[in-house]
User: Fold these one by one.
Assistant:
Number 1:
Amino acid sequence: MNVNRKCLNYILQSVIMVCLLNMIGWLAMHQWGYNLMFALTASMIFVLVIDIATALVWRWVASKHPNMMPSFITGVSGVRFLGALLMLLIGYLVLGIDGMSSFIVVFFVYYLASIIHHSIFFSRVSKQL
């Protein structure tokens, strides 16, 4: 298994997923007149930062310390969750209570898509290790 290629595939898949979600968000924003700009931008940045960091750290762990993979998967889940809580706090501080409902919905869609992508990708890759 080529670890570098898998790492790049994960990043590419994440970028494509975020682009598709952004297109859906833009359509919803223009169709129904919602102001989702902050929610879309913050969610996009969160998912890309977490997924790119995950891919790069995974590449290092898979090539140098393959016996640490279970700890890596657990650690990524914890970091993703804590990052999501931090993003919700930032969203609350920026938008206030009035804008939180749309922010939470948009952020949850991105967060859920990121978790599903992560789970599917790494379940397939771990079978190959």
Note: The mean pLDDT is 91.
Number 2:
Amino acid sequence: MNKLLSTICCTLLVCVCEAQTMRVWMKDGSERQYAVSEIESVTFSEEGTSMEQLKKEIEQFLDYWNAAMIAADTVRLGAMMDDDIILRHITGMTQTKREWLEEVASGSMKYHKIEKRNVVVTSNSDGNASVSFTSVITATIWGSYGTWTLNGNMRLVKRNGKWIRVD
């Protein structure tokens, strides 16, 4: 498993997730296909990480987050979020973790494709991180299919060596 993650992290150029499959195009031009279930939530390095390493970890967290959204993997998404998180929809509506995961599981929120752009990672003195980014999301939300460009922000904390979304 660690070799698989190392291979993906070190040689990934482009990644597209479809249903339960992740296609990865390698630097050498070859293409590999992995089941999303093969890619576990990653345990990251210890505190005191360099800013370069922190950015790499957070980018990887976002990649796993997006893959789990596309795969509707509510178990993985749930493990990546704090239990008390409140999520805000583009309409301004808020949802608890449980409410959002139920929407994803039922298919009323189905994510087809997600591109991340303009990722900016900041760290604070307590070792936590904030990330802002732009996502281009193609989804079917409550029966409406479309592509939306959204500006996102996440606050992440490291617990037991794993990044967890708290905001």
Note: The two ends are 29 Å apart (CA to CA).
Number 3:
Amino acid sequence: MKKLSLYLLFAVAGWSLTACDESFNDYQQPTVFPQEDPIVIEGFEATPTAAASENIDLATLADEGLQLFTLKMGKLPEGMVIENIRLEAWPADKSESVATNVEASEDGKVTKAELVNLVYSFYGKKSTERTFTAKLFADAVKGAESVLITLGDFTLKITPEEVENPYYYVYGNATSSKKEEAYKTIMTPDPSSDVIFTYTTKFVSSGDMKVWNSKYWQEGHESGDFSMLYGSGEEKPSSYKGETGKLEQGRNASIFSPTKEYYTFTIDLESLTYRWVKLDNQNPASYSVISLIGGFNSWTGDVDMQAVDKAKHNWYAKLTLTEQTELKFRADHDWAVNWGFGGATGDWTVNDDIWAQTLSQDGGNIVVPAGTYHVYFCDITGAGHFVPADN
């Protein structure tokens, strides 16, 4: 059980309280006056709960959160009240980090939203257990004056939930100007990571671009919910065209390609960064059309895909298969250039773990289960995607 220590800045007689502004941010700033030794006030006790020492799994945590501590209130000087109870937390492996505030209630509860914000502010969205060092504080307030109260130290272990929907899309004048078709410019997942995504084409340097999670198109498009948007976190002019930069969720700031050339654009939701890598080959082969052909149409007719970027290297089609079938991608309705699995015929396992593959020229037939799919293909990288469609 931890007893509360009260940092008092006082004159020889009575309380002399340090002023605070309306935002109660004094605890983040250096103390203006020398601090006396902490004074222990009997009756104030903060006790961590069992949940505070266990792993907090955000995937199963209810929105109302959980209780991390119990607080026994002692007697304060007349006219004082306790306000602004919060944890100041930072990663245990990043001791130099500026702490993030986690609001808590008087009964020791912290909401899921506060814990989600804590993890994402330092680590991004990889579902890995994170350890935080935290200090529990409160303000003893009288009028416009306050005194800082420290209630003890915590170690929190938090695991963020898996990304609900692993589909991300780029949209803007750098790729496509049709907002209603932005879901057709899908990013390719990195096979070594569940939080890295790429998009390759010839970008328009004067065009602005953003990244949307697929939930935006399902839920936030009409309401304009920008929490599902990723933009540039750089504090630079809107025309900034750097080759690397910070990515910020909920930021309605555009990302600009450095030049009007072929790049692979990459986002990393672990480090919350983006980068541009210029292609060595600035003259990739181009085709009039990319199509799908297979057992579903008796290998006799092509389902043409739509070019969705201005350079015509990324393609989209919506395809319904009434039964499992084998198929391939090919260029210009001819077998001279076609794409399939690198080896023999291979299954296309369609689930949240494997929904994209890098295909090879003259590869084996692709086996796709029955269903309706959003189908994507990049003829530069060979990245193909079969994303189950809701309708």
Note: The longest strand covers residues 145-159.
